[in-house]
Amino acid sequence: MIKLFHQVSQECSRITTELYSTSFSSSIRLLHKDLRTPIFNIYGFVRFTDEIVDTFHDFDKVKLLADFKKATYEAIEQKISLNPILHSFQLTVNEYNIDHSLIDAFLKSMEMDLGKKQYDRNGYEEYIYGSAEVVGLMCLYVFCNGDKNSYEQLKPYACSLGSAFQKVNFLRDLKADFEGLDRMYFPGCDFSNFTQEDKIKIEQDIQRDFDHAYEGIVQLPLKARFGVYVAYKYYLSLFKKIKKLQPQKILDTRVRIPDHGKVFILAKAGFRSQLNLL
After folding, report:
1. Could you give the CA distance from residue 258 to residue 266 in angstroms, rounded to a whole number?
2. DSSP secondary structure of 35-102
3. SS3 for 184?
């Protein structure tokens, strides 16, 4: 019956992913079927942790995160948890031997969100690594399936992709982060005086991340390549929309890709894949 418990737990992670992010869940479904469940398991863990620091304002977030952190490591060590999200996550961590230092870095970044409101360059880079790059690296463990040489070769590109995704999120959510959570992630930027110069500098940095990430996407194992490419194209399209806006417009609205736009991105990516252009 333990297999049934595994299945129930992993279904919880899948449902969590689908309800919280239609874009990521759609991209995950484009991965080879062997990869989908472990990636859902990783996202479920990441999503729940992020919810603690971003959403549960009426509760003791410090205690909730500390308890969740303790339960995470216990689940990994004992190879079981009655929390289905943690149980499914530990299954993936233990199956693919994911480096625990990546989990440490992620949880540290979530702890930073409980206190830090402004970031200098070093803090910003540390936060980007822990909150986004390591998530890409956890997924890369799954994509490489024990091939350490491939992992090491693709590691820098996975970091760049995670970094690009997170920085686009920061730009898109600038208003919500500042007004709702009193955060400004970009170092040296002032929400009350966010200039075109600030925006261009950030966009140039993001474009470098995207360019570098693409070099790695085309080297990914075939089982992972198409799904990751579609996620890349979705965020790149979001980024291009943001680039066209004036700074004040970003502060006033949250940019989205409409459903028909996502369908177009998927169709175009599928066409390129059929022509072996990825």
Report:
1. 13
2. HHHHHHHHHHHHHHHHHHHHT-TTS-HHHHHHHHHHHHHHHHHHT--SSHHHHHHHHHHHHHT--HHH
3. strand
* Cβ 121 vs Cβ 76: under 8 Å: no
| pLDDT tens per residue, range 202-248 | 999 999 999 999 999 999 999 999 999 999 999 999 999 999 888 78
Q: Give 64: exposed, middle or buried? Use CB within 10 Å, 0-12, 13-18, 19+.
A: middle
Could you read off the pLDDT of 103-114 as tens digits, one per residue? 999 999 999 989
Contact between 42 and 94 (Cβ < 8 Å): no
pTM score above 0.85: yes
CA distance linking residue 96 with residue 143, whole number of Å: 10
Spatial CA neighbour of 238 closest among 226, 253, 218: 253
Alpha helices in 116-258 (DSSP H): 121-128, 134-144, 148-172, 174-181, 196-217, 222-243, 247-252
For 128, how many CA atoms within 13 A lie in the half-sphere containing its CB? 27
C-alpha distances (whole Å) from 83 to each of 12, 37, 68, 80, 178 are: 10, 17, 10, 9, 32
- The SS3 of residue 107 is helix
Terminal CA-CA length for the chain: 42
Q: Compute the chain's Rg from CA coordinates.
A: 19
Cβ–Cβ under 8 Å, residues 87 and 5: yes
Dist. CA 107–CA 112, nearest whole Å:
9
- Closest of 222, 237, 223 to residue 267, by C-alpha: 237
Six token digits for residue 76: 């990994």
